[in-house]
């Protein structure tokens, strides 16, 4: 156990109600190990806003002990030589054996562990208001045509069929589910993870953007004024039928005491069954941050503890970042997530989320953001979106 005087200064972006409850779980575990938790919560979900604050602190010579991080941002910090190498702890706790392979590719840089993953969120979910779902027949939409039919029936009830917020990452999260459903797992992997220019079939990309245009017709006219968690509250209140979002929505529902199968329903986005588009929250430790080696080891070892990963993800709605955490304590949506995570890990269809920076480096992600958000707002048409997306992906492919 670490010295009781050790400070665990932690930067993170978990600021919504459900996320705040989840960070408290981590805090309780860390403090039980004798460390003093010093919290710095910054809204931003791993985007430039959060990153700018963290960079400013590091450049000022005041890095935290640890910071939440996702995706290729880990590689950015590791390449600068700023992070603590975690190989010894990883070897001791057998991370190579229990962490899904897709997550390991992000946690590691040049073959070495630099971040500890705490969860495996997935983004290709539908979250539906339970009462409205039953009014519309109570049958999960299995195909794209099923989804459109359900959205149309919701519109006839004079409710918002599809809730979404105003930020580009939300629009890209919707896009990635549509793209995976339309093109399949091999297309998604080749086009967006491997940046293979031969995968960028114009007709398929056009079909994807045409589907996005269809969905635009079912959005709330005020979506440009709300955030993702405000969109979630529209589902909770029955003002909207469904939301396409990550499994952190399950954490929001749970925080407010809602019961899956009764108050809300969770299903895979149509035609993405058998795929798990993931976002893994991770923690990296700074070489120049506070805390001695013992405190750092205690902090990281605690994050990877089976019990912590169970409890924090029962709260957050995610699957754990370990394949060996029992699912008994999770609700039905959580148990489904764990089952899906394990099976897709075996089939290598557990693939990084574009929207959450787990598929591409930031420059590629941001280029996709711009095209997808401009298109959803109706600033560019389907054909222009295809042209701009192909150009962006091929330019970055050439740069690899």
From TrEMBL:
GO CC annotations, alphabetized? periplasmic space
Instruction: Provide the protein's localization.
Output: Periplasm
Kindly state which keywords UniProt assigns to this record, in alphabetical order: Signal, Transport
Q: Which InterPro entries match?
A: Bact_solute-bd_prot1, SBP
Q: What is its main location?
A: periplasm
What's the stated role of this polypeptide?
Answer: Part of a binding-protein-dependent transport system for a sugar.
The family assignment reads: Belongs to the bacterial solute-binding protein 1 family.
From the Swiss-Prot or TrEMBL record, give the protein name: Probable sugar-binding periplasmic protein
This chain's source organism reads Billgrantia tianxiuensis
């Amino acid at each position: 156990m670490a010295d009781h005087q050790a400070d665990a200064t932690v930067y993170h972006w978990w600021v919504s109600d459900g996320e705040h409850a989840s960070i408290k779980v981590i805090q309780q575990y860390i403090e039980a190990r004798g460390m003093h938790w010093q919290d710095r919560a910054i809204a931003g979900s791993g985007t430039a806003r959060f990153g700018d604050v963290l960079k400013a602190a590091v450049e000022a010579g005041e890095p935290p002990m640890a910071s939440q991080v996702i995706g290729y941002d880990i590689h950015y910090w590791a390449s600068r030589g700023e992070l603590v190498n975690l190989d010894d702890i990883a070897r001791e706790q057998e991370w190579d054996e229990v962490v899904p392979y897709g997550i390991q590719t992000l946690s590691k840089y040049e073959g070495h562990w630099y971040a500890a993953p705490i969860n495996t969120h997935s983004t290709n979910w539908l979250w539906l208001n339970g009462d409205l779902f039953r009014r519309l027949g109570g049958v999960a939409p299995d195909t794209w045509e099923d989804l459109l039919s359900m959205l149309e029936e919701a519109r006839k009830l004079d409710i918002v069929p599809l809730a979404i917020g105003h930020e580009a990452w939300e629009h890209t999260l919707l896009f990635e589910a549509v793209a995976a459903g339309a093109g399949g797992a091999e297309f998604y992997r080749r086009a967006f993870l491997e940046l293979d220019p031969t995968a960028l079939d114009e007709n398929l990309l056009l079909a994807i953007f045409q589907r996005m245009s269809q969905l635009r017709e079912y959005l709330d006219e005020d979506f440009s004024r709300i955030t993702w968690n405000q969109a979630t509250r529209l589902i909770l209140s029955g003002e909207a039928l469904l939301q396409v979002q990550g499994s952190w929505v399950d954490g929001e529902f749970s925080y407010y005491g809602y019961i899956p199968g009764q108050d809300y329903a969770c299903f895979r986005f149509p035609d993405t069954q058998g795929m798990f588009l993931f976002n893994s929250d991770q923690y990296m430790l700074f070489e120049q941050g506070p805390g001695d080696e013992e405190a750092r080891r205690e902090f990281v070892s605690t994050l990877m503890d089976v019990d912590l990963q169970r409890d924090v993800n029962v709260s957050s709605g995610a699957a754990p970042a370990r394949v060996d955490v029992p699912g008994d304590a999770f609700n039905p949506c959580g148990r489904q997530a764990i089952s899906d995570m394990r099976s897709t890990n075996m089939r290598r269809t557990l693939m990084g989320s574009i929207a959450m920076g787990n598929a591409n480096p930031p420059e590629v992600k941001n280029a996709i953001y711009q095209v997808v958000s401009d298109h959803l707002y109706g600033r560019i048409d389907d054909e222009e979106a295809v042209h701009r997306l192909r150009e962006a992906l091929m330019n970055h492919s050439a740069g690899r």
